[in-house]
Design goal:
With 112 residues, the protein is mostly beta strands. It is built from 1 helix and 3 strands. Helices cover 10% and strands 17% of the residues. The chain has a 3-stranded mixed β-sheet, covered by helices on one side. β2 and β3 form a beta hairpin. The radius of gyration is 30 Å and the shape is rod-shaped. It starts with 63 loop residues before the first helix and ends with a strand. 10% of the residues are buried.
Length: 112
């Protein structure tokens, strides 16, 4: 079966049946104008201020209650207790201190 041909376009190419209904310069499936191809750059991440006056490593070995109390006293806005093998999300929260606790003792500690 021969392909049905439509009148030639200004650029000299034919419009076959598969291209029928396509507006000039539009996308092949919708005929809508093509999106702007400029790629916007992402804004740089701001420097996260250290909200606490101590290092997370200093909490290792403390009891969970003592570590949590000390963290709030040092200026951490959020303290999260976790099991060492807990599955956690990867979002970083400024001002949060994560405590991995085993047998009521902090075994690991990190920001975020």
């Amino acid at each position: 079966m021969a392909k049905e041909l439509l009148p030639k376009r200004d650029d000299g190419r034919d419009r076959s049946v598969t291209n029928r209904g396509r507006r000039r310069g539009g996308t092949p499936t919708t005929g809508c104008p093509r999106p702007d191809r400029t790629v916007a750059a992402m804004a740089p991440e701001p420097e996260a201020p250290d909200t606490a006056g101590d290092e997370p490593e200093s909490y290792v070995g403390l009891s969970a209650d003592a570590a949590e109390r000390r963290a709030y006293e040092q200026g951490w806005s959020t303290v999260r207790r976790l099991a060492p093998d807990a599955i956690v999300t990867m979002e970083f929260l400024v001002g949060r201190l994560n405590l991995a606790v085993t047998d009521d003792t902090v075994v690991r500690c990190w920001k975020g």
